[in-house]
Design brief:
mainly beta, 7 strands
């Protein structure tokens, strides 16, 4: 018999961050990390793989003729700015000048 959370259990065993939410509580933003297999036996929990942040690398420079900033998406090697966004809320979590 296949466990109803088989995919999530396998993901957790392979190192993915799996979170649970207690459906008996009203706070929908309350997700907690699963740290052992016994969590998957509770009927009041729902599970998900923890959403990953969105990371963007930019090159921000000033146009020499117009003196206005120019912003371009680039790879990590050519970037001078790193932005990290929260995938769930869309909020900016971190910005870092890298050059």
């Amino acid at each position: 018999m296949i466990h109803k959370h088989e995919v999530l259990i396998i993901a957790w065993l392979h190192g993915k961050e799996v979170e649970f939410h207690n459906t008996l509580h009203w706070d929908d933003n309350a997700w907690f990390p699963v740290d052992n297999l016994e969590f998957f036996t509770c009927d009041n929990y729902i599970f998900r793989i923890k959403p990953q942040d969105i990371v963007e690398f930019l090159d921000v420079s000033r146009n020499k003729l117009t003196h206005k900033p120019s912003i371009n998406y680039v790879d990590k090697i050519n970037a001078n700015l790193k932005l990290v966004w929260d995938r769930e809320t869309g909020d900016l979590k971190m910005s870092k000048v890298i050059k």
